[in-house]
Amino acid sequence: MRVNSWNGWDPLRHVLVGRADGTMVQAPEPAVQRDFPADGFPLGTYGPMPEEMTAAANEQLDAFAVQLAARGVQVSRPTPIDFSQPVSTPDWEHPTGFGCMPPRDVLITVGNEILEATMCYRSRWFEYLCYRPVLQELFEADPDMRWEAAPKPRLTDASFVPGFWNEYQTLSKAEQLARVAEHDLVLTEEEPLFDAADIARFGVDLFVQLSLVTNRKGVDWLRRHFPDHRVHEVTFTNTHPLHIDATWVPLRPGLVLHNGERPADPELVKYFEVNDWQVVEAVQPASWKHHPRLSFCSPWLAVNILNLDPRTVCVEAEEVRLAEQLDGLGMEVVPVPFRAVGPFGGGLHCATVDIWREGGLEDYFPNRCGRF
């Protein structure tokens, strides 16, 4: 057992796959609000996800773990805690936790280091505990592993813009996009905040999306923490930016998949192109009713894919058009039934954390360009 991963495409040898057990519909909090009136969870209500949905999600997660193991990939799993219990600190109390299906939100592997992100949802404050048994096992097995945790934020009211959601929902799309461009969103700059899933790893270059869960101070903390990397602050034209891995998706050196519904900063595109990268716009998802029940995910979860190596990629089984597009780009596509997992926090990439990929640190962007 070892820890090593510098990008999202080198051959995968060990991976963490999440679990749906005990996942909760979150109670409203400063950073997030869930509103599912058609399913009995209108804004202000919360509670466990329906048992039949949890069972269906776990069935697909377990089958995915078996599928990966059959391809020679070692699989680890988290240990769920009781997410229905209240979460509290000396500064605040929240009715429940959330779950441990999307480990990608909490953990990122950079080289021989696994870093625990800050997390800005109060409901996810103790979620890191689910992964501690795996991390402790890795720490004991690999003498070169670095186990790090970003400063735990206080998440007092000072970290959030008061009344943000009520105001934001009244704005036009153009006004919302203007706010996104200025990064004038729900988080203040009181303290460093970031989700690990807002970081895209390309060897020496780390691209960090400013979003509803990642602020500038979080990017600054990452820049100081990884002084040997180029840490880039990026934004996309998206009214509800949340995690980069359904927007800007590396496939292999020289090829990145882009969600065209969320245009990238032209300077970012140019940075890739002057370094001989091809930026390909992804086809639209197969279904715009991606998850009809209790889902906070966009249909663009379709491009939330997992590379097994530079030529092999796991894609949700119903996304036939995307599979055909990737096949045309020279990829072997592994179809994975995963629709039932979406309401629990994401797709194939969200549901995993790569612990060990073969390969070393490389500079894929030798040419500087603009502000990058």
TrEMBL record:
> What EC designation does it have?
2.1.4.1
List the catalytic residues.
Answer: D195, H243, C350
Q: Which domain of life is it from?
A: Bacteria
Q: Some GO term, biological process aspect, for this entry: which one?
A: creatine biosynthetic process
The GO terms describing molecular function are: glycine amidinotransferase activity
Checking SUPFAM superfamilies in the record gives:
Pentein (SSF55909)
Q: Which UniProt keywords apply?
A: Transferase
Enumerate the InterPro entries for this protein.
AmidinoTrfase
Which PANTHER family does the UniProt record give?
GLYCINE AMIDINOTRANSFERASE, MITOCHONDRIAL (PTHR10488)
The text of the family note is: Belongs to the amidinotransferase family.
What's the protein here called? Glycine amidinotransferase
Q: Which species does the entry assign this protein to? A: Actinoplanes lobatus
Kindly list the organism's lineage: Bacteria, Bacillati, Actinomycetota, Actinomycetes, Micromonosporales
